[in-house]
């Protein structure tokens, strides 16, 4: 079975085509600048160099058509015909309280995703455009939706409610939802397999640290608490997002700086985090390079960033009455040995001992980086959200057949 995984944003559409026989990626790529002049399509067939083309792509249906052109191109394509695509899986950021697991797309499911537009105004409408574009181009092909929030639907009320008037939860569903759920679920499961233990037996903290970043406490194999909240702004300090702060800062800043709601929103989401403190970059590679040159602002940004990761790990160890497994994943978590070392250096009180050599090694495989005597097993597990989407889609479509 061949499954196309799509992550549709408002002006971009990323794709990966999987052969589910061996879960290999046949091709991947992205369409950028949808709706602007000179849209860019980048297509990479497995084992061959990527190709780029520039054309005018005004909306998502044309973007999906261009992807089909690439996938069936006589030179760079990997399919004889688009009829070879058996199913399409979509990444959906917000499943609200409705979706506890992935689902096949039906008129009812589309209606529910629409009902959640308010909770994820930047993401869910774009995902819906992706679903509709696929309907138009690949008519009749089954589609599935896989939610970033679904894994966290197991959180108890004491984790997901905010201490504000209950009426706000009842009327507007204001609560913690959490994100990166697909990633946290995948790396937790993989970590348990690497350790050769049942996931249900572990007290695990998963740190997904990429452009966006979140920590999740996984207890008895389920999400017990997570650092992102109603939106992906809460929790850890991120590339350009502030993460946790005193909510009173928002009205105070609006008043002092004469900012509108949308300006303050943009400040916290796009002009904060590593970028704001370093004054240099939101990219951890540039921060750590600048630190080596003695840049004190980059050093401060790094110190704040790692301090906040460590605080969350400590908080979740307390929340679960212990921790025996710590997992690092995503762009920064998988690649930055210095970040892992700095975070873990303050956790020796938990009996956690990192092996400096294992930590420094580079590998695309999931691996243990703690010493054999460490009371907490520390692992690096490369995440693969697209593969989870492909697997869930495969399962749902196979069950229907
Ligand atoms: P993601 O959102 O998971 O794709 O992560 C992207 C981020 O990972 C980039 O913005 C970089 O900050 C970070 N990253 C990638 N490679 C490295 C590296 N070798 N060292 C530190 N950070 C990295």
Describe what this molecule looks like in 3D:
One of its GO terms (biological process) is acetyl-CoA biosynthetic process. This is Acetate kinase. Substrate binds at residue 91. The structure is a single chain. With 401 residues, the chain is α/β, with parallel strands linked by helices. It has 2 domains: 2-147, ATPase, nucleotide binding domain (Nucleotidyltransferase, domain 5, 2-Layer Sandwich); 196-385, Nucleotidyltransferase, domain 5 (2-Layer Sandwich). The protein is built from 15 helices and 14 strands. The protein has helices spanning 60-71, 107-115, 124-137, 157-160, 166-172, 181-195, 249-257, 261-270, 273-278, 284-292, 296-319, 330-335, 337-345, 356-360, 385-400, and strands at 2-8, 12-19, 24-32, 39-45, 51-55, 87-92, 103-104, 143-147, 203-209, 213-219, 222-226, 325-329, 367-368, 377-380. The strands form 2 sheets. It has an 8-stranded mixed β-sheet, with helices on both faces. Strand 2 and strand 3 form a beta hairpin. Helix 10 crosses helix 11 and helix 11 (296-319) crosses helix 13 (337-345). Adenosine monophosphate is lined by residues 210-211, 239, 283-285, 330-332, 335-336.
Per-chain topology:
Elements: E1 2-8, E2 12-19, E3 24-32, E4 39-45, E5 51-55, H1 60-71, E6 87-92, E7 103-104, H2 107-115, H3 124-137, E8 143-147, H4 157-160, H5 166-172, H6 181-195, E9 203-209, E10 213-219, E11 222-226, H7 249-257, H8 261-270, H9 273-278, H10 284-292, H11 296-319, E12 325-329, H12 330-335, H13 337-345, H14 356-360, E13 367-368, E14 377-380, H15 385-400
Parallel strand pairs: 1-6, 6-8, 9-12, 12-14
Antiparallel strand pairs: 1-2, 2-3, 3-4, 4-5, 7-8, 9-10, 10-11, 13-14
Helix pairs in contact: 1-3, 10-11, 11-13
The chain binds adenosine monophosphate.
């Amino acid at each position: 079975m061949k499954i196309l995984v799509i992550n549709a944003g408002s002006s971009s559409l990323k794709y990966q085509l999987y052969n589910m026989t061996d879960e290999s990626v046949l091709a991947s790529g992205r369409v950028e600048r949808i709706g602007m002049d000179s849209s860019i399509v980048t297509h990479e067939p497995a084992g061959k160099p990527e190709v780029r083309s520039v054309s005018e792509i005004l909306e998502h249906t044309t973007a999906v058509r261009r992807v089909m052109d690439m996938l069936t191109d006589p030179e760079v394509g990997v399919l004889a015909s688009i009829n070879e695509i058996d199913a399409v899986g979509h990444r959906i950021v917000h499943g609200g309280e409705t979706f506890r697991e992935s689902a096949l797309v039906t008129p009812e499911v589309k209606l529910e995703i629409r009902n959640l537009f308010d909770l994820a105004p930047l993401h869910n409408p774009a995902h819906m455009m992706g679903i509709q574009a696929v309907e138009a181009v690949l008519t009749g092909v089954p589609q599935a939706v896989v939610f970033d929030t679904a894994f966290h639907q197991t959180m108890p009320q004491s984790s997901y409610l905010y201490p504000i008037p209950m009426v706000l939860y009842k009327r507007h569903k204001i609560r913690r939802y959490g994100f990166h759920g697909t990633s946290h679920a995948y790396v937790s499961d993989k970590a348990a397999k690497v350790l050769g233990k049942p996931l249900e037996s572990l007290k695990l903290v998963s740190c997904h640290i990429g452009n966006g970043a979140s920590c999740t406490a996984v207890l008895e194999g389920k999400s017990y608490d997570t650092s992102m909240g109603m939106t992906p702004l809460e929790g850890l300090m991120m590339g350009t997002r502030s993460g946790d702060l005193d909510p009173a800062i928002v009205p105070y800043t609006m008043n002092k700086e004469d900012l509108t709601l949308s300006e303050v929103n943009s400040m916290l989401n796009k002009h904060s985090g590593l970028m704001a403190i370093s004054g240099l970059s939101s990219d951890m590679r540039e921060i750590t390079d600048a630190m080596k040159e003695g840049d004190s602002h980059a050093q401060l940004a790094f110190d704040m960033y790692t301090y906040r990761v460590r605080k969350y790990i400590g908080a979740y160890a307390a929340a679960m009455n212990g921790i025996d497994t710590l997992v690092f994943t995503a762009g920064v978590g998988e690649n930055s040995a210095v970040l892992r070392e700095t975070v873990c250096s303050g956790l020796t009180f938990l009996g956690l001992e990192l092996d400096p050599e294992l930590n420094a090694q580079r590998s695309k495989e999931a691996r243990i980086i703690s010493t054999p005597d460490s009371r907490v097993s520390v692992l690096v597990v490369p995440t693969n959200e697209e593969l989870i989407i492909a697997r869930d889609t495969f399962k749902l479509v196979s069950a229907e057949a």
